[in-house]
Design a protein that fits this description.
mainly alpha; Na+/H+ antiporter like fold; 295 residues; single chain
């Protein structure tokens, strides 16, 4: 119980406070441009965070790439399992396959990883997040739209930041001190801003069937837990790498998936919103137990 309360106080509470601040901003009607702030995180925060963290040498290239490969395998399992589940539930893949398979590795995954395991944990979480973001840029966008477009990938600063960071990792090159300090400051905006966006978004969702949201969220969490523990064993992960990978598979449904459903399959937007809310609450409840007893 002491371990449980410690993890709740040290990991979950800081994240919850930031998210609740975003909720309060929405409820109070404080001007908050989610599109602008989200764009700032995507174009400045995430790219500089990726480069500054990986160039600091908190992990080697091979375990970083192995974590990314395991993340890709996890998403492939999610797509197969969730696709079969949605078919049995007679729910359209166009609206639900992206939410059910792309975890919120950015908004919640990164802060949980860094609060639990420090900079090394953040590095492994970034490997998982990068794979999720590629999923968002590809099928997460293409399926709801009903068409394929590579423009989102080619125009994303995150993709180029990944290339630069991997080159720095491969050649074991660190940024000059002034540049590293500047990137640390710019990268530091990503996590708090994304938590505020998460809270603001949750307060603005149009909910529909909470019962259906509970069913879908329960399956999503069970799928993530089974996949996370199984793949961690299959890839031979240990220590921080294993713990962070499992945590990332337990992360809730990404809020970003709601946007495309609202635009291109609006009749199911309420159900997806309910899924996101219930999934987020389930993760907040489960993570302290996993940290205390499962890792």
């Amino acid at each position: 119980m002491i371990h449980l309360l410690g993890h709740f106080a040290n990991v979950v509470l800081p994240v919850a406070l930031c998210v609740l601040t975003g909720v309060a901003l929405a409820r109070l009607g404080v001007p908050f441009d989610r599109k602008m702030i989200g764009g700032l995180v995507q174009t400045v925060g995430y790219p500089t965070l990726i480069i500054s963290n990986l160039s600091a040498g908190h992990v080697a290239l091979k375990p970083f790439l192995t974590t990314g490969a395991a993340a890709a395998a996890a998403i492939a399992v999610f797509v197969c399992a969730a696709g079969l589940f949605l078919w049995r539930m007679r729910l359209p893949l166009r609206a639900f396959i992206a939410p059910m398979t792309l975890n919120n590795a950015g908004n919640i995954g990164l802060p949980v990883a860094v609060l639990s395991f420090g900079d090394e944990g953040l590095s492994y979480a970034l490997a998982f997040m990068i794979v999720v973001m590629i999923g968002v840029f590809t099928y997460g966008t293409w399926v709801p739209k009903g068409r394929v477009s590579v423009r989102g990938i080619l125009t994303s600063p995150v993709i180029y930041a990944i290339v630069v960071a991997l080159l720095l990792l491969y050649f074991q090159v660190k940024l000059p001190k002034p540049l590293a300090s500047g990137f640390d400051i710019l990268g530091g905006i990503a996590i708090p801003l994304m938590l505020l966006i998460l809270g603001h978004s949750l307060a603005s969702l149009r909910l529909s069937s909470l019962r259906r949201g509970l069913v879908l969220a329960g399956f999503h969490l069970a799928m993530g837990a089974i996949t996370g523990f199984a793949l961690a064993a299959l890839f031979g992960f240990t220590g921080t790498q294993r713990a962070v990978f499992i945590l990332m598979t337990l992360m809730p449904v990404a809020v970003s998936s709601y946007l495309f459903v609202e635009l291109y399959a609006s009749e199911h937007a309420g159900d997806v919103a309910s899924l996101i809310l219930v999934s987020t609450l389930l993760t907040v409840a489960v993570v302290p137990f996993v940290l205390a007893f499962g890792l």
